[in-house]
Amino acid sequence: MEYRKSYKAFVIWLVVYLAAMFSPMLLPKDTDAGLVMRLVFNLTSLGLVVLMWIIWRTESVYWINGTTFEQARDAGSARRRAFALAHMKVFARFALGYAIFSIIMQLQNVGFVADIVAFCVGLIASALLTLRIRL
Fold this sequence. Notes:
By secondary structure, the protein is an all-alpha fold. The chain is built from 5 helices and no strands. The protein has helices at about 10-20, 35-60, 70-75, 75-105, 115-130. It is elongated and about 55 Å long. The two termini are about 20 Å apart.
């Protein structure tokens, strides 16, 4: 099968992700702001895992920053899949860790400032951890 450059799956993912981001607005007006924030952060972390899964499934590793289509094509299928899987694992660990953290914070009625810090630090750390992954 010929390896082709396409952004179709990315565009579909983006449309679905944006729709998901607006879904917390459908909650009742008196919903706790912390819960809404936690839902948005969890949807974002889950969305990143889904994006990495799409990249793994389609081998579209050129969507990942710093990787060109030519590099991806020349790497071969096995290396592309391993590269994408390594990225997916990093973001999946972050998503799972943040989900557990946010549930605990919600159950303890802790303000959402802790979630903002945890989410931002965790997301940045995950992104930095992927820098060492080479195609």
